[in-house]
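anyone seen this seq b4? input:
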Amino acid sequence: MTPTLDETDLGFVTLDGTGIQTSELQFGTWRFGRVNEAGDIEIDEERAHELLDAYADAGGRYIDTADVYGGGDCETWIGDWLADRDRERYTIASKIYWQTREGDPNSRGTNRKNLRHRLDALLDRLDTDYVDVLYIHRWDDDTDAREMMKTLNGLVDAGTVHYLGASTLRPNAWKVARANEIARAEGWEPFTVLQPRYNLVDREIEGDYLEFARQEGLAVCPWSPLGQGFLTGKYDRDAALPEASKAAASTRFRESYLTEENFAVHDELDRVADEVDASPAQVALAWLRHRDGVTTPIVGARTVDQLAENLAAAAVDLSDDQLERLTAAKAGPYDAL
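predicted toks r here
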């Protein structure tokens, strides 16, 4: 029988490098307040609160956001929702990098002026005194690494940030390594959480990136665990593209995901899903949860039903043979070396 939300409460895992316990599946909120290509808001405030309620009711405690999601509305809606809950029970992560004020080049990046101003603003929107994890959303080559780490350490010392993370630095783990070397030499707070893209068909972090995280004891919290929807089963190599889908709107998506190589991965995914009586999305998430070096994937959803399906992946057990077949369906970047 396909697992459902009612059959499982999310468990906890250690967020490596921090010592805190967090949900085995995080909830990503990037669609909150997002305006799509048709000019419609993908998830409005009412549905956002319904999704947050469903996640919390399932035992979820880790909410991932960013100060640019929904133009800031995302954080405001999360803050309004948190006002009726015990803030201390939740791990809240946000991110800073992208430009937020037109015509102001200093409103972008990880320079001290921008980091301090942006943190104050996002704390106001979240209506909280601190965030548990603050990510740099991208690497800023215009700001010296020492300057950035000194500033970030100051935020930790002030108590407005508990831990530091770096998001989407797939080929550049060495930049995090260098920044952490500087931080440790100075007695500053290092990065302890990484947030790369990783899933059955996006395998670029395998090898040096994951090995670096393992050696350093860093948490790895992948985003896009379902390949922007490709691994949910919504696409068929021989069928017309669903209307209003990502593939229908994006040439880049079609070229990146709708390939014969990726459909071959999906064929194996479907076979395993049939064997364990689960959905392809649940099996794809279960595979990721079992990957060595992965701490807790970030799942999103447009509806409560989608969220229930994704969270129920925590109840899916895969055999060693099934895990090996899924892994072998597409070669990682170092498999041929």
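Residues 37 and 249 are 8 Å apart (CA to CA). The radius of gyration is 20 Å. kinda curious what u guys think
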